[in-house]
Structure formats: structure tokens, C-alpha cells
Design a protein that fits this description.
The chain is α+β, with helices and mostly antiparallel strands. Helix content is about 20%, strand content about 45%. The longest helix is centred in the first third of the chain and has 25 residues.
Length: about 160
């Protein structure tokens, strides 16, 4: 004959087994679940000096991830090279906070600082430079489906296009 186990102990053992199996199933189901992917972000950049636009790329990135952009001068791609890095620092007052570092060959050597970007609004930053008139960095960031992205890009293109003489 087998060993007698009281009814209460059997119920507690069964309940413990069910809870353990439920926890294991929950953990297993989350292993295969992909993390939600954030919507791509549009980053529109413009580097200008007193003579005009040096570079004006539009790049896609992800919210909360570093953005590295290497650019060539639109006026003279063979001689001038630029580099911009945006590092996300989090959010503050409903705006994205980034640290930035900008280098423009012969004009700006690794200028850095922090900038708050409101979704869908352009921000201009005056940068110290080695040339008269200085350099201006314009930054715009918004999710790709933001209602104002297409309109902003159209207005930006019109603004940055040189007027024909």
C-alpha cells in the first residue's frame, strides 16, 4: 500500500504546481514576443554659414538611439567634410533632449552641447567657428507619421533652394 497524503496537502501541492506552470508559461510566451519597435524618426539637418548652405541632409533614425551623420559640403564636396552626432539623453518637458557634436573641416572643430527638440519644430543653434559670420546648425525631428513632416520638408526645400540669378 502507498503512503497516505492528507487532502489539504494534496490541494496545496496541486495549487503550487498550477501556479508554477502558469509562471513558466507566461515567461515562455514572453521569450518569443518581439519588443515594440518605435516609429522611425525623421531628422532634417542643415549646416549654413554666411555664404549659404554647406549641407542639408534628411535622415531616418529611431527615437532613443544615436544618430551619426557624415556630410559633404554641397558647394564643394571634394574639400569640406562634416560630421554630426546626436546622442539621446531622454525627455524633458515633453521635448527630446540630445547632446550634439558638430565638426566642419576648416570651420568648426568638435563643437558640442545639448539641445531640446520639440517634435515637429525646427531648432537653430549658433555655432562658434573659425570663419567670419559663424555657422548655424538647424535641427528638426519628428516621427515619420507626424502630421507636419511632409509640409515641413516641402517648406524647407523651398527655403534652402538657392534663388536663380
Amino acid at each position: 500500500m502507498g503512503t497516505y497524503i492528507p487532502r489539504r496537502s494534496r490541494r496545496l501541492a496541486t495549487l503550487g504546481f498550477v501556479v508554477l506552470c502558469g509562471a513558466a508559461l507566461l515567461a515562455y510566451s514572453r521569450l518569443g514576443t518581439a519588443r515594440p519597435v518605435s516609429e522611425p524618426m525623421v531628422f532634417a539637418l542643415s549646416v549654413q554659414d554666411g555664404d549659404g548652405v554647406l549641407a542639408s541632409p534628411v535622415v531616418l533614425g529611431a527615437a532613443g538611439q544615436k544618430v551619426n551623420v557624415r556630410m559633404m559640403c554641397e558647394q564643394d564636396p571634394a574639400t569640406e567634410r562634416m560630421h554630426l552626432t546626436l546622442n539621446p539623453l531622454g525627455a524633458e518637458d515633453g521635448q527630446m533632449l540630445y547632446s550634439y557634436e558638430l565638426s566642419v573641416a576648416g570651420r568648426v572643430e568638435a563643437e558640442h552641447g545639448t539641445v531640446k527638440l520639440a517634435m515637429g519644430h525646427e531648432r537653430r543653434i549658433r555655432i562658434r567657428s573659425n570663419t567670419p559670420g559663424g555657422v548655424t546648425l538647424s535641427l528638426y525631428a519628428a516621427p515619420i507619421r507626424h502630421p507636419g513632416v511632409e509640409r515641413y520638408l516641402q517648406l524647407r526645400k523651398a527655403r534652402l533652394t538657392p534663388a536663380s540669378s
